């Protein structure tokens, strides 16, 4: 249920609504808009008597029940865009934010050189897997805590906040000790106990869409995180399973404007897992930003042909640095920004003049 206040409603009138809701045993969440305050109320079931009581209060324009099955993450509940802050980076604001790094942390040298290279090209966060969900149990499954320590070292060296995946509810505390953003991978999109466990932390969550998960199911899954009190959720479209086999997944870019209609949460795109082929990644990076994505998460590796995971979809430093200035121009063309470091990297300098 949401309470839409009149445009000139006073702070006292807003406080009176909150007090009345609390008297009924429910809590409120304020969503200030440009013209008026919207007050969200969480709880099931919310009685009609509460709706009627609130409609009688001064300053209240309308009380509306939210008919969608997901509430906290819905745009009805919170009409303005949410901005998620990670250190001094804001995701969901005017700036397009690029997260980059290897699929897996493989060595100190690998993660630190990659962190430096992606930062020089304009990435604002570093990705790297320490706990890896692998389709085959015999593949490289990550360094675990040693990988987290290497990520922390790369953060110390470069100042880039770190995004890394957590696979199991009993590893959430450990991963949260090192990570700035907890990633929930596609395979765990509907692992509700894991979602609740990250929902009990105060860390931002990068929440990937499952490979066969519909948008409503995805938002209902996000609601599990929000319902535990953590609404710092960044959605990530990473491709879905279709009949096509040329690409690893089919990158559903229509999910971006669709999610913008349905939810106030920021949405970013992963063109690496979305295509599975590095040659397709730059074009999909540009297309994702053109479609309105708030950011990207891209796999970058010093030697993709030697990567322990996902080498075939990883960009070299050079390829990454080449696409970033193009991405900045697309962002600008749609009224957003992608600020690049003043000193462009040697690779960007090598990009062909246009
Ligand atoms: C990853 O980010 O390396 C990963 C495993 O992604 P996804 O969960 O989208 O497959
Ligand atoms: Mn990967």
Describe this structure in words.
By secondary structure, this protein is an alpha/beta fold. Helix content is 34%, strand content 17%. It has twelve helices and 14 strands. The strands form three sheets. The chain has an eight-stranded parallel β-barrel, surrounded by seven helices. Helix 10 runs parallel beside helix 11 (317-333). The longest helix is centred in the last third of the chain and has 17 residues, at 317-333. Bound molecules: phosphoenolpyruvate and manganese (II) ion.
Largest sheet: 8 strands, parallel, barrel
Please count the helical segments: 12
Order of helices and strands: EHEEHEEEEHEHEHEHEHEHEHHEHH
- Assembly context of the chains: single chain
What's the total number of strands?
A: 14
Overall average pLDDT: 95
Beta-strand content bin: 15-25%
Topology:
Elements (H helix, E strand, L loop, with lengths): L1 E4 L5 H13 L3 E6 L4 E6 L5 H8 L4 E5 L19 E3 L2 E3 L5 E5 L6 H14 L3 E3 L17 H14 L3 E4 L6 H7 L2 E4 L7 H8 L5 E4 L6 H13 L5 E5 L17 H8 L4 E3 L1 H5 L5 H10 L4 E5 L17 H17 L12 H4 L5
Parallel strand pairs: 7-8, 7-14, 8-9, 9-10, 10-11, 11-12, 12-13, 13-14
Antiparallel strand pairs: 1-3, 1-4, 2-3, 5-6
Bound molecules: phosphoenolpyruvate and manganese (II) ion (MN).
Manganese (II) ion binds next to loops.
């Amino acid at each position: 249920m949401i309470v839409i206040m009149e445009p000139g409603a006073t702070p006292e009138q807003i406080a009176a609504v909150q007090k009345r809701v609390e008297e009924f045993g429910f809590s409120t969440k304020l969503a200030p808009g440009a013209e008026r305050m919207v007050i969200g109320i969480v709880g099931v079931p919310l009685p009609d008597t509460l709706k009627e009581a609130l409609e009688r209060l001064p300053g209240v324009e309308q009380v509306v029940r939210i008919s969608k099955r997901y509430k906290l993450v819905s745009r009805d509940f919170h009409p303005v865009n949410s901005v998620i802050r990670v250190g001094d980076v804001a995701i969901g604001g005017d700036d397009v934010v690029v997260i980059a790094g290897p699929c897996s942390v493989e060595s100190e040298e690998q993660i630190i050189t990659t962190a430096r290279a992606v930062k020089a090209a304009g990435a604002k966060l570093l990705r790297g897997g320490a706990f890896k969900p692998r389709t085959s149990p015999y593949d490289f499954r990550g360094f675990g805590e040693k990988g987290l320590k290497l990520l922390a070292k790369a953060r110390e060296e470069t100042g880039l906040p770190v995004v890394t995946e957590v696979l199991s509810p009993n590893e959430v505390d450990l991963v949260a000790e090192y990570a700035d953003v907890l990633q929930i991978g596609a395979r765990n999109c509907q692992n509700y106990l894991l979602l609740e466990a990250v929902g009990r932390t105060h860390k931002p969550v990068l929440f990937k869409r499952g490979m066969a998960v519909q948008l409503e199911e995805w938002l209902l899954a996000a609601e599990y995180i929000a319902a535990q009190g953590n609404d710092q959720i960044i959605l990530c479209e990473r491709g879905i399973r279709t009949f096509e086999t040329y690409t690893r997944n089919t990158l559903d870019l229509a999910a971006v404007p669709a999610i913008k209609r349905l939810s106030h949460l920021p949405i970013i795109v992963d063109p690496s897992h979305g295509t599975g082929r590095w040659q397709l990644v730059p074009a999909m990076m540009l297309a994702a930003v053109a479609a309105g994505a708030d950011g990207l998460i891209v796999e970058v590796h010093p030697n993709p042909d030697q990567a322990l995971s996902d080498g075939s979809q990883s960009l070299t430093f050079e390829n990454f640095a080449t696409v970033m200035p193009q991405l900045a121009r697309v962002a600008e063309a749609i009224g957003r920004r992608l600020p690049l470091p003043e000193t462009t990297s040697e690779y960007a300098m090598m990009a062909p003049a246009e």
